[in-house]
Amino acid sequence: MSSTPRGQRASLDKQPHEVAAMFDGVAARYDLTNTVLSFGQDRSWRRATRAALDLRPGERVLDVGAGTGVSTEELAHSGAYAVGVDLSLGMLYAGKRTRPAVPLLAGDALRLPFVDASFDAVTISFALRNVNDTDAALRELARVTKPGGRLVVCEFSTPVNPAFRTVYLSYLMRSLPAVARAVSSNPDAYVYLAESIRAWPDQAALAARIGAAGWGRVAWRNMSGGIVALHRATRA
Ligand SMILES: C[S@@+](CC[C@H](N)C(=O)[O-])C[C@H]1O[C@@H](n2cnc3c(N)ncnc32)[C@H](O)[C@@H]1O
Fold first, then answer.
1. Which one of 30, 79, 106, 115 is most buried, by most CB atoms within 10 A?
2. Is residue 67 within 6 Å of ligand 1 at its C-beta?
3. Cβ of 18 less than 6 Å from ligand 1
4. 109 touches ligand 1 (CB under 6 Å)
5. Distance separating alpha carbons of residues 117 and 110, to the nearest angstrom
6. 235 to each of 98, 149, 179, 186, 214, how far by Cα in Å?
7. Closest CA to 214 of 185, 235, 193
8. pLDDT digits (tens, 9 = 90+) for 115-170
């Protein structure tokens, strides 16, 4: 493991300091790399996350693992007050430069800097997979949500069609790291991305974990054939 930000890549045990350093290394070109690697689909995934949260003007929504604030900014289009929290100072600095109006705080998904029941809704986009204790993070999200409040998890998942799944896994393991070498400020991080997606629970398994962590009425919807899934739930 390199000790410099460039070339920094977390291992699958996802130690918080390694994860934060890896994201510090991708921060400079994070938004662009995302859009290139997802063929522009990231924008529609973010819009779908906002719609699934069903936010109303004046509500308070927390975006955990907000990174550069790209997901937080989308939520604010609803008229709700959206605040982002992230572990990586590099991502937060990049966000402050490009989106100075988006409120972003340094904090850990496992110890959120908010009192109980602070938010009408909480969400986490492409970040739950990077937290080293998924179940504890889901419980912590429930703690800061009002009873009856909503959760939406937007995360890479398992394509439903077996033939498409084979093609996608090959893109993930071979082509994606190669494309990342051309566009990212830390291409090694995209090897971790591919490995962490492959090791992540499928739709039904994640739904069961959400339900076991203090959330009710868990449901999901596939996007882009199941490359991404949106899990919704309500605070019990
Ligand atoms: C792939 S980025 C997602 C950023 C943004 N939500 C988006 O949709 O593009 C994942 C983010 O999760 C953050 N992260 C990982 N572990 C975290 C933790 N324990 N607490 C807070 N943020 C964390 C990383 O620093 C990184 O910025």
1. 30
2. yes
3. no
4. yes
5. 15
6. 33, 5, 40, 37, 7
7. 235
8. 999 999 999 999 999 999 999 999 999 999 999 999 999 999 999 999 999 999 99
